[in-house]
Amino acid sequence: MGPAQAIIIVVMDTGAVHHQMMSVPENITQQDLDQISGVLNAKLQGKTMGSIRLTLIKEIYFELARHRNILDLAIELMQDRIASAKEDKIYLEGVFNILNQPEFHNVDKVKVLLSLLEQEDTLRDILETPGDSQGITIKIGSENSRQEIQNCSMITATYQVGDKILGTIGILGPTRMDYARVVTVIDCMSRNLSRTLERLLKGQG
Question: Which UniProt keywords apply (predicted)?
Fold first, then answer.
């Protein structure tokens, strides 16, 4: 994802996908990440959460002793996210970056927006894809159904395996954002995520 960022993706046999951005040391190479991914896939693929014993976790740590910090985050993700009964999860990143924009120097506007971002059910409705619609959606200003974000723009893109949509990535920002750049970034992310998930679900990860 970047020089000091990676994304952990866990795919369940139900099609549920759990993912989380994480910071990694800058000296971690793609080869290191491939090695970590290979060991985790080899040890955990086909296992149920209930069948993952301490001895198996110890084996993983033994084989990947150099990468203990990353493993800690991966195991924490599996315990905290996957064990949760709730599959539709909202992940927020960079929320406070919007405070740097001149449109949001008004304290009342910021309070309303931050309050909205704390409401997972509302965010889920905002990100929900109508019908079987796939691809990129752009909503500018009043095109957004929620009044709280009608001074913002929302760009979303779905990611899927085959024809099955597994989730949505969204970027919320001021209406004067660089649309061409944002669309390019979010399109690239959704396509890469779709390809990665397809490989994992086919057992090629």
Answer: Repressor, Transcription, Transcription regulation
Q: How many CB atoms lie within 10 A of CB 40?
A: 20
The superfamily (CATH) of domain 95-201 is: GAF domain (3.30.450.40)
Tell me where in the chain the CATH 3.30.450.40 domain(s) lie: 95-201
Would the pLDDT of 185 be above 90? yes
> Is residue 88 classed as helix, strand or coil in its secondary structure?
coil
Look at the block and give the residue holding tokens 């195991």: 75
pLDDT confidence of residue 191: 92
139-144 long-range Cβ contacts below 8 angstroms, 24+ apart: 140/175, 141/175
pTM over 0.85: no
* 3-class state of residue 66 by DSSP: helix
| Distance separating alpha carbons of residues 82 and 60, to the nearest angstrom | 19
Distance in angstroms (rounded) separating the CA atoms of residues 12 and 49 = 10
Is residue 17 over pLDDT 60?
A: yes
Residue 170 has pLDDT above 60, yes or no: yes
